[in-house]
Write a structure and sequence with these properties.
This protein is mainly α. Helices cover 84% and strands 0% of the residues.
Length: 282
């Protein structure tokens, strides 16, 4: 039985190879356009951030952290964390990583949140999309990193597109969860006051679901950051590059310092971007 099945192997890999070859032959201009657009955007954002003095940018991020979270302890931690990263010599790589994470997060949220709202209002759409989301979250990253590398070439584009594929499921699922969790009496009250579907969405559903949606955004940021090392394997710059180089050279100091920089950046992004906790009333 096993020999018969092996001898009659389905040509799945061959079919995918032929499809990728067809895309390369007939739509290479489209993929080149996307590659150039992503490279221009990411490189431009990185150049702008690097043009700003490191001390000024660190103070700006600390001020943003204090404004969002009203915590001087967090602002102080941001300053200490970024000063340590700068001292280790990874400030440029950190800025490159912030550009990649920021662009991939904005792309994932811009697509994922509206899609999550649409699936919450159309159960059939969520039923059709759920297997795709499961596949995107469970498929090993290297599996879809190979075709993106072939289509988009080395650089930021394949790593960023793979990051978006990996991270976009979080805002879709949590936006869907937040919108579907809105109590029915709350929506009925809005309808009783004559609210249209659009007004009901913007004034009732989204405000109620905002904590869950923001949790999806924060999770998307963390998932994007977790891809920096994998993105470095296909030529994306950032903190993943010294990690990959340290792995190839068995360079323990470089690997440890780059890893610490990634951890510090992850903590800063998580603390700054999470929704502020409401203080309990006395």
């Amino acid at each position: 039985m096993e020999d018969w099945l092996t001898g009659h192997k389905l040509p799945l890999g061959w079919a995918v190879k032929q499809f990728i070859a067809w895309l390369q032959a007939h739509a290479s201009w489209f993929f080149d356009l996307i590659t150039d657009g992503i490279g221009f955007t990411v490189d431009g954002l990185t150049a702008i951030l690097l043009h700003v003095p490191a001390a000024l940018l660190i103070l700006a991020v600390a001020a943003l952290a204090y404004w969002l979270q009203r915590s001087w302890k967090l602002a102080l931690f941001v300053i200490i964390a970024f000063l340590l990263i700068t001292n280790l010599g990874y400030w440029t790589a950190t800025v490159q990583t912030i550009s990649l994470v920021g662009f991939s997060t904005i792309t994932s949220v811009a697509i994922g949140v509206p899609l999550g709202i649409a699936t919450a209002h159309r159960p059939w759409l969520y039923a059709a999309l759920r297997p795709v989301l499961d596949l995107m979250q469970t498929l090993p990253t290297f599996v879809y990193l190979i075709p993106t590398l072939v289509l988009f070439g080395l650089g930021a584009a394949p790593g960023l597109i793979s990051t978006v594929i990996f991270a976009i499921a979080a805002p879709i699922r949590l936006t869907h969860l937040g919108i579907t969790s809105v109590p029915l009496p709350l929506k009925e009250a809005g309808e009783a006051f004559g609210a249209t579907k659009r007004q009901l969405l913007w004034k009732v559903e989204i405000p109620y679901a905002l904590p869950t949606i923001m949790a999806g955004v924060t999770q998307c940021i963390m998932l994007s950051l977790s891809m920096v090392v994998i993105a470095a394997l296909v030529g994306a710059e950032g903190l993943g590059t010294p990690v990959v180089r340290a792995l190839g050279q068995v360079n323990i100091p470089m690997g440890f310092e780059a890893g610490i920089s990634i951890v510090l950046l992850a903590i800063v992004l998580d603390r700054v971007c999470r929704r502020p906790e409401r203080k309990a009333s006395a």
